[in-house]
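SAMPLE LOG
Freezer: B-3
Tube label: C17
Construct: single chain, 415 aa
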Amino acid sequence: MQRSPLARAIVLGALSAGVLLPSLAQADFIKDSKASVQLRNFYFNRDFRDVASNKQSKREEWAQGFIFKAESGYTEGTVGFGLDVYAGLGLKLDSSDERAGSNLLPNSYGDEGPGAYSEATGAVKAKLSKTELKVGGLMPKLPIVSSGDSRLLPQFFTGGLLSSMEVDGLSLNGGQLREVNFRDSTNLEDIRASNYKTSKGSDRYNFAGGDYAITSTTKVGAWYGELEDIYDQSMLNLIHNQAVGDWNFGLNLAWFDSSDNGNKLGGKIDNELTSVNLSAATGAHKFTVGYQDSDGKNPFPFLQETDPYIVNYIQILDFTRADEQSWQARYDINFANYGVPGLAAFVRYVSGDNFSTSTKNDAQEWERDIDVSYTIQEGTFKNLGFRWRNAMVRSDAAGDLDENRLIVSYTVPLL
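STRUCTURE (predicted):
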């Protein structure tokens, strides 16, 4: 892609702002840089059908987001240095005190909040051979911790991440996260655990682990995470893919063992969770069956607003209550095979039971999702994307919910 002088000036200015990089003129630092701005228009509507148990009848908001990301290359030399930058801006298009709290904006029920909010961060990085260190603002995408991006602006952490791929087929990662910027906040805060209410979070999440490709179709992984003074968690996973004629079969198995840690700020934690995902795909069609067993006296813990590596963490529910067992059936279709490239859809149903609430011992819940997306493939509006996400929940614990999300996104490459 031809780089305009204006785009180059914007990106290099952002990459070098406030940071002294004496080797900035090195070719690889500039040549390998990439940057983009994503425009994300987000409408959110959650209808609480069981109003008697929730004084707010619905959450309904509309907002516009601007997401800027830039990644430099590395300076030349035995050890290369670089910089990554992220900045986000959210604008309120529609909200009210009675409809606030969708997590699109920094507000809550009873206060529609400000008309705009913004955030920014950056990470310095160094690379030696196939080993890379990043320190600063991070958006990790690892099985043990994966930053969330399901609202207007993404979640990010501050900390350090060391990644190494010195051995063929072996990927190793480790690090420490110190603070988190939640998706609807401009502040850096202590890290908290989902499913465990406590007035205190932790300023240290330590993690380590990796994946090893046994063959081109089979990979195993082992991970460990510690949210200091709240929980410990070990994880093992197996991924296998197998082609049989025109079909591709997949297996993704994950097992977690979680317990309380240190000062036990979240209280007692005792949970073992098993997640199984089986898939079969041919042509335009993919069929998936999932099973999840949250076994133990307490719910499954994970970092708040992250995407845990479990099969039944879906649009609204996660089916991780103590002793809950849940099944998933899903069907995906890609309409490119029928002459409409860029159009895809899926329908998903998950049912969970065998858990208890304050009023019911044999409680149940289910969620049905419909997801349709289309991205323009060519012409003036190439890469303009549209997505409709519809969910229906009926739960003895969460109540009855109907939800619609409409998302229009467009990414502008700058470098």
